[in-house]
Amino acid sequence: MKRVSLKDIAKMVGASPSTVSFILNGKASQMRISDELKNKVLATAKKMGYQPNQVAVSLRTGQTKILGLLVEDISNNFFASLAKTIEEEAEEFGYKVVYSSTENNSKKGVELLRMLTQRQVDGYLVTPTLGMEEDIEMLVKHKKPLVLMDRYFPGIEAAYVQVDNTGAVLKGMEHLVEKGYKKIAYITIESGLIQMRQREEAYAEAISKSPEQKKKYALKVAYNGSREVIIDQITEFLKKNKPDAVFFATNYLGILGLESIRSIGLSIPKDLAVICFDDNDIFRLHLPGISVLQQPVEAIARTAIHILMQQLGNNKVAIKKNQVQLAANFIVREST
Amino acid sequence: MKRVSLKDIAKMVGASPSTVSFILNGKASQMRISDELKNKVLATAKKMGYQPNQVAVSLRTGQTKILGLLVEDISNNFFASLAKTIEEEAEEFGYKVVYSSTENNSKKGVELLRMLTQRQVDGYLVTPTLGMEEDIEMLVKHKKPLVLMDRYFPGIEAAYVQVDNTGAVLKGMEHLVEKGYKKIAYITIESGLIQMRQREEAYAEAISKSPEQKKKYALKVAYNGSREVIIDQITEFLKKNKPDAVFFATNYLGILGLESIRSIGLSIPKDLAVICFDDNDIFRLHLPGISVLQQPVEAIARTAIHILMQQLGNNKVAIKKNQVQLAANFIVREST
DNA sequence: CTGAAAGCGCTTACAG
DNA sequence: CTGAAAGCGCTTACAG
Question: Where would I find the HTH lacI-type domain in this sequence (chains A, B) (predicted)?
């Protein structure tokens, strides 16, 4: 059962492939093709179940109508939501999305980027890892449509969209200070990525301005640590430093942190207040509910797509800047 | 900055495109091409940053090395994990995966399936929705490589991989009965999909065999209901029927159910035992931990890919059956 | 050992 | 109003 091609249809109706192509692409009237022929072609195409070969179209037109999306980890809630909204938005513009996870592994990231190039994607949406600088810079130099998300490289003039990390952490810290906490700890992962640095620096800034707390209590866990190792590290840190509040820098850390807090038997917020970057079903459902700085995921995705579409010459949307920071939503629950 | 093509390289080294193609595809020795020429071509290709145009390769070879994956909802934990493992496994065999969410909308599902066909994917991995029967059957008839996951259509001879729903629910029910619960309710979504029917029938079977409980207490919520509506429905159901245990048929329902139980102020498991199909971080972290029937997600993904690879003529793996059911893992926590 | 040629399935200037 | 022809960037029988 061979697939029918445009040529097959042309042969069946006794017209040339070019004429059939025009009709199938809705250019019949523009090319002043008779209604009779047009209807005949349309009917035959339908009857034969004709489906254009997109690969051939892409090769000919130079457009694949595919966007490449590289996230850190698709099984992580934040990135999954991001991917979903991006897919929906892209569809509005007639683009499909192929996605892959870098696992924050620069080698894998670079390979995926090359793969996307070989696949001739029309545009790139990337949450880059450290080590991808060169390849990203190359894309920028070649004027490829590209938008970074969640993080970016300070030296590289690429478009990006991220949450306002600094503002978010400052807001959370302010809240804790107002509530009277005097020994606020900060738990993050070891990472040179800009968004983690921004958050950490905001914590440091907040502490330096605090009237009551002079000293930072920070823990950095290894990125590649197993669940168990990280939980142990957090447990030990909390036992040793006995903070009265703790700020988790990510979703993932927050979840592990809760396990750790539970294992010590601390009561939230009486013994220890908890606040976390990124929301999660777990934090909403937890008893007590965990206060969070929620990233505006949909807005990040939408803005990224709009900037990318602008680069692709799709002017349905007008955007001014191509480097955007969006405010986080502060959701106060019972943990602070 | 135009991309360099194979022809460009041929021109630069003064050889024919065919020779360059052979060299670049590692067939130099097979074609008895001189080492000198070979090295020259390789060096030039590298220097010029040559990247083969996969679109052209696909058109010519008829293989895209792309697999199409259709899941119900990529932002749902179960499907995200499934997608991730599939992607990893596919990579082992040199395939990329493009995925999309059907949202259990048959119109969208059918459109996506056609899109995948137009994009010339080499194989299909699908969690089908009701209403996709015809299109799926067409793929089977055309002998397209295809594996269904999570659910299937009884009348259609397609390969599939799913968890043993019947066995899983029976095991859970048995546990509840043994623990002495006598009024076990079952909460599911309205759906004609096979996996939901299998679970429901297993519940009915368990009740019919139970020495103590003669009557079923089942609630079916609408698939499209909003969070709030579903929570209200569950709340009302629990208040009215006062079961001593409740079995949630999915992940998503379980989470909403916990919110509902909390709003009523019932204590788990004293007032109400809880068990759920599908695991989730939330259930592990919840106080008390929720007992679950965990799907073997990785195994499902791996099996599906292996069957698909077999269909694609990739004989690295030997599999006997092409319709597979895998046992669930029963994880007992404190909620039962 | 290497090159010229055909062809994958389309689209689109160019002719008539 | 419609057709013949070129070409997108590759691969692969076919010649020599």
Answer: 4-61
Confidence at residue B314, expressed as pLDDT on a 0 to 100 scale: 78
Query: Could you report the per-residue pLDDT of B110-136, keeping only the tens digit for each?
Result: 999 999 999 999 999 999 999 999 999
Spatial CA neighbour of A70 closest among A126, A130, A7, A17: A126
Mode of pairing for the β-strands spanning B273-277 and B291-294: parallel
In this structure, the dihedral spanned by the alpha carbons of residues B168, B170, B173 and B179, taken in order and rounded to 10 degrees, is -100
A77/B contact by beta carbon, under 8 A: yes
Residue of A nearest to B50 (CA): A118
Q: Which residue has the higher pLDDT, B168 or A44?
A: B168
- Subunit contact A282:B285, Cβ cutoff 8 A: yes
**Count of residues making up chain B:** 336
Q: Which of A110, A112, A104, A129 is nearest to A223 (CA)?
A: A104
Residues A98-130, buried b or exposed e (16+ Cβ, 10 A)? Answer: bbbbbbbebebbbebbebbbebbbbbbbbbbbe
Q: Which SS3 state, helix, strand or coil, does residue A249 take?
A: coil
Sorted by where each starts, the structural domains of chain B and their CATH numbers stand as 6-52 (1.10.260.40), 64-163+298-327 (3.40.50.2300), 165-294 (3.40.50.2300)
- Residues in B 284-323 with any Cβ partner in A closer than 8 A: 285-287
pLDDT per position as a tens digit, B240-272: 999 999 999 999 999 999 999 999 999 999 999
Nearest to B223 by CA among B106, B133, B113: B106
- Within 20-59 of B, beta carbons closer than 8 Å to A belong to 51-56, 58-59
Q: Output the pLDDT for position A59.
A: 94
A102 touches B: beta carbon within 8 Å: no
According to DSSP, the residues that pair with B161 across neighbouring strands are B149, B324
- Suggest the residue from B76, B108, B281, B335 to mutate for an interface test with chain A (most A CBs closer than 10 A): B281
The separation, in Å, between residue A20 CA and nucleotide D4 C1' comes to 14
The pLDDT, as a whole number, for residue B77 is 85
B94 to chain A: closest CA residue = A115
- What whole-number distance in Å separates Cα of residue B47 and Cα of residue A287? 60
CB closer than 7 A to strand C: which residues?
A: A 3, 5-7, 17-18, 21-22, 24-25, 50, 52-53, 56-57, 59-61; B 14-19, 31-34, 37, 56, 59-60, 62
Nearest nucleotide to A36 by CA–C1' distance?
D1
Does strand D come within 7 Å of the CB of B180?
Answer: no
Pairing of strands A329-331, A291-294: antiparallel
* Distance in angstroms (rounded) separating the CA atoms of residues A290 and A269: 9
Can you tell me whether residue A86 is helix, strand or coil? helix
Question: Are the C-beta atoms of residues A234 and A185 closer than 8 Å to each other?
Answer: no
One-character DSSP codes across B155-168: TS--EEEEE-HHHH
pLDDT, tens digit (0-9, with 9 covering 90-100), for A133-190: 999 999 999 899 999 999 999 999 999 999 999 999 999 999 999 999 999 999 999 9
Secondary structure E strands in A123-183: 123-126, 146-149, 159-163
pLDDT (tens digit per residue) in A277-331: 999 888 998 889 999 999 999 999 999 999 999 999 876 666 678 999 999 999 9
